[in-house]
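If you are new to this repository, start here. Below is one unmodified record pulled from the training split, so you can see the exact layout before writing a loader.
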Amino acid sequence: MRPEDIIIKPIINEKSNMLLQEGKYTFKVAKKATKIQIADAVEKLFNVKVKKVNTINVQGKKKRVGYHQGMTASWKKAIVFIDTNPQDTKYLAKGGKEVKVSNKYKDGIDEFTGV
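And here is the target side for that same chain:
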């Protein structure tokens, strides 16, 4: 699956706006997408580092229009925790020389809030 097929749309409501301050973003995702696929799709689409992904299967609700009764569609929600403070990594190269690699990740998803 392509990243565009996995992430369907962001969920913007009062609770998800409160979670933005903690670096948690909420998305409606494809029902068959796994946590690993969701994390890879968010990293590719938004250029952020994903720490953790929680998924929830939301069941459809009973709805009624006049005499007829039916169900709304079930869907899958993902809460994605991103790294809000990406640190530079240091390691020892050949000869004991210390090498510093800067992470080129953003600390927020600007497209989510429309900025």
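Two things worth knowing about this chain: The chain has a mean pLDDT of 87. Strands lie at 7-10, 24-29, 50-58, 62-65, 68-71, 75-82, 89-92, 98-101.
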